[in-house]
């Protein structure tokens, strides 16, 4: 039981980082991306490759993964500067499909469909982090700085500019805001911080393949943000905890067919999002009128 709780808590921390970083662009910049799993994957594959071939030090792996994901995020930032709304969602979907294809076919780097195995444990000051409790503490030590950094950014002038762009890009431009630079930086920051979660995931699992970075993951992350409360500081955390606990709750319901648990989860996610959009558009933490913070 303790092993299950530690595993669940660690995965909650990793997914919370992803939800927080997606909310950074979705809730505050108004950039609705369904390609967030790709930057999660870029961070994981970069961390795994670097750890296998260079060094497993957490202080080297995570910065390298962040830089790679941040640079690649410019591919997403370019359409964000030109299109909005449903057109950008379509563009991000294209990036999601492209990313999954690269992960699957670039066998010399990603291992293809077979994935990457034998990833060494994270090295922290010469100590291999293999104990589940120690890894949970490491995950928390990554989650809190990410939460703190995004909170600080959102409460700064940069965050106010993001909200201005979200509310009215034309008005923000008219007031002299450098809309292109602000949107680009928000995407780069979001992707780079998502790579932190990817690095943790690679070290924690010791094995990664493309199955963890599919469209389903991006949709689940979006559900975490929307259900918790888009454009709120605590919403992504609440949404992550609820959606990560839900599978465990269903698995303990003996009257449900165990072979259909996955489908039942998807139905529950969809139903929760529909009901929230009707009765509480702002999510659990957000305003009942759907106004973002």
TrEMBL record:
Pfam families: BPD_transp_2
Membrane topology: Multi-pass membrane protein
Localization terms from the record: Cell membrane
Listed CDD domains: TM_PBP1_LivM_like
Record-annotated membrane-spanning stretches: 6-25, 32-52, 58-80, 87-106, 133-154, 187-207, 219-246, 267-286
Record key words, sorted: Cell membrane, Membrane, Transmembrane, Transmembrane helix
Protein's UniProt keywords contain Metal-binding: no
Keyword check for Membrane: yes
Top-rank taxon: Bacteria
Name of the featured protein: Branched-chain amino acid ABC transporter permease
Species in which this protein is naturally found: Herbaspirillum lusitanum
């Amino acid at each position: 039981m303790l092993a299950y709780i530690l595993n669940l808590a660690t995965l909650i921390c990793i997914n919370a980082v992803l939800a927080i970083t997606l909310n950074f662009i979705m809730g505050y910049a108004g950039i609705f991306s369904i390609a967030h799993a790709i930057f999660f994957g870029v961070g994981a594959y970069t961390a795994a490759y670097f750890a296998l071939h260079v060094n497993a030090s957490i202080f080297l792996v995570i910065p390298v993964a962040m830089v790679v994901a941040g640079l690649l995020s410019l591919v997403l930032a370019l359409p964000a500067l030109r299109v909005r709304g449903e057109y950008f969602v379509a563009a991000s979907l294209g990036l999601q499909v492209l990313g999954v294809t690269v992960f699957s076919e670039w066998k010399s780097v990603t291992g293809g469909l077979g994935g990457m195995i034998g990833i060494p444990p994270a090295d922290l000051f010469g100590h291999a982090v293999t104990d589940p409790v120690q890894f949970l503490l490491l995950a928390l030590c990554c989650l809190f700085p990410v939460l703190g950094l995004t909170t600080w950014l959102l409460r700064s002038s940069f965050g106010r500019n993001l909200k201005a762009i979200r509310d009215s890009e034309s008005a923000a431009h008219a007031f002299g805001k450098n809309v292109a630079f602000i949107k680009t930086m928000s995407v780069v920051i979001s992707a780079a911080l998502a790579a932190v979660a990817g690095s943790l995931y690679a070290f924690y699992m010791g094995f990664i393949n493309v199955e963890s970075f599919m469209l389903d993951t991006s949709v689940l992350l979006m559900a975490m943000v929307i259900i918790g409360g888009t454009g709120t500081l605590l919403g992504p955390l609440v949404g992550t905890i609820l959606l990560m606990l839900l599978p465990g709750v269903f698995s303990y319901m003996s009257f449900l067919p165990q072979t259909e648990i996955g489908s039942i989860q998807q139905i529950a996610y969809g139903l929760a999002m529909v009901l929230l959009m009707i009765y509480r558009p702002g999510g659990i933490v957000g305003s009942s009128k759907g106004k973002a913070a």
